[in-house]
Design goal:
By secondary structure, this protein is mostly helical. It has two domains: 1-104; 131-216. The chain is 61% helix and 0% strand. The chain has eleven helices and no strands. The chain has helices at residues 22-35, 42-57, 67-80, 83-100, 106-117, 126-137, 139-142, 145-158, 168-178, 184-192, 204-216. Helix 3 (67-80) runs parallel beside helix 5 (106-117).
Length: 224
């Protein structure tokens, strides 16, 4: 069954277009703290998702700073909302992501793509758009390595093929030069960038370098 057709949130989107929309996103983010506390019932989360979908569905554009707010909303959605509600919210977000995510900060790009990649039923064409966003944003040149790894893992989950080899080979070389700066968790995440990819692999050099680094890492003390 199509996850979109199963959600009542579809009736909440649409309406007149409004520029900006920052205050709406800001107030939605303020509600997340309360909704993340123990004892919150599912209906409260559903109501929040309805408000978020309605707000995004009536916005014409987002200013650059408010992509961080959208990232917080999508992250909350992926953790606490029903999958069908998350899917509708992502659907409402896609026009904004295609239009302006490229200008957001590296950690915001990574966080948003990570949240979107975990939602089933995303339109196939978004993988290509997401790949172009990562390429054009300059995140590989100026972004933090953790953000690069998170964004690339998201592209892999989305099914981005990178047929021209503009991203994955460069990321492989970048990780190879930064292995000594990464903790064991980040090293494992780095390998997952290539896990299951149809076209690009980690390669023997990177695997061997990560293996050596893991063996050299000091063992963590066991909890008492």
């Amino acid at each position: 069954m199509d996850v979109y057709s199963a959600s009542p949130l579809l009736g909440m989107v649409g309406g007149p277009l409004v520029e900006g929309g920052g205050s709406s996103l800001y107030h939605l983010v303020q509600r997340i703290n309360a909704l993340s506390r123990p004892g919150v019932v599912a209906t409260d989360v559903t109501r929040f998702m309805q408000d978020a979908a309605k707000s995004l569905g009536t916005m014409q554009r987002l200013d650059r700073p408010f992509y961080a707010h959208l990232g917080s909303i999508l992250q909350f959605s992926s953790r606490f909302a029903q999958p069908e509600d998350s899917a509708v919210l992502v659907r409402c977000s896609l026009p904004h992501l295609k239009a302006g995510l490229v200008a957001a900060e590296d950690t915001v790009i990574a966080s948003i793509l990570n949240s979107v990649s975990k939602v089933p039923g995303i339109e196939p064409g978004f993988a290509s758009s997401a790949g172009e966003t990562v390429r054009a944003s300059g995140i590989l040149e100026t972004g933090r390595i953790a953000a690069v790894i998170t964004a690339m893992r998201a592209l892999t989950r989305l099914g981005y093929e990178d047929q021209e080899g503009q991203l994955y080979p460069r990321v492989r070389e970048l990780i190879l030069t930064r292995v000594d700066d990464l903790c064991p968790e980040d090293l494992c995440s780095a390998l997952h960038v290539f896990t299951g990819h149809k076209r690009h692999t980690a390669g023997d050099a990177l695997i061997e370098r990560i293996e050596k680094r893991l063996l050299d890492c000091p063992e963590r003390p066991k909890p008492r």
